[in-house]
Amino acid sequence: MTIDERFLQLVYRVPSTTSRARVAVWRELKRLGALYIQQAVCVLPDRPGVRERLDKVRERIDELGGESMIFVLTAVEEREYQTLVESFRENSAKEYAEIVEECETKFFKEIEFERFRENYTFEETEEIRQDLEKLRRWLRKVEGRDWMGAPGRELAHEKVAECERLLDQFEADVYERVGDPGKV
Hints:
Residues 22-178 form the ChrB N-terminal domain. It comes from Microtetraspora glauca. It is a single chain. Helix content is 64%, strand content 15%. The protein is α+β, with helices and mostly antiparallel strands and 184 residues long. The protein has a four-stranded antiparallel beta sheet. Strand 3 (35-38) and strand 4 (41-45) form a beta hairpin.
């Protein structure tokens, strides 16, 4: 039995004079959510917006003096389809787990440490808020390439929401101790 979902397969070659070029292409493709089948061969689901982003990576490959070809995979065999789906899910699940870990091991600990130091300043809350914004952006990016509904999305959202609650509490404590920063 074959599955009708379409995939895009990119096969490319980048000159081997420096590893920097290869790493730059690899990084862009990983950011896009590409699943590597083997070296310089990756697959992406043919979803809205993916082709355009992939074309930009191909332009980068051209700029680096490389070559690339895209193949549209249709009528993928069920076994291979299941392998692709599970691999995409595993990749996204790992990223969701990294977000959860970042929340638990860094963000939560940062607020705990600032409380321990009694560092109740508006500057500190602004720094922590920037960290929260980084977590939110990261979560949006992971969700944007979670095409197959990986496990862990809900937990990642819960942990980021918990980060926000902890920061709100910390900010309230700062306001209570320091007062209104707008008052002169």
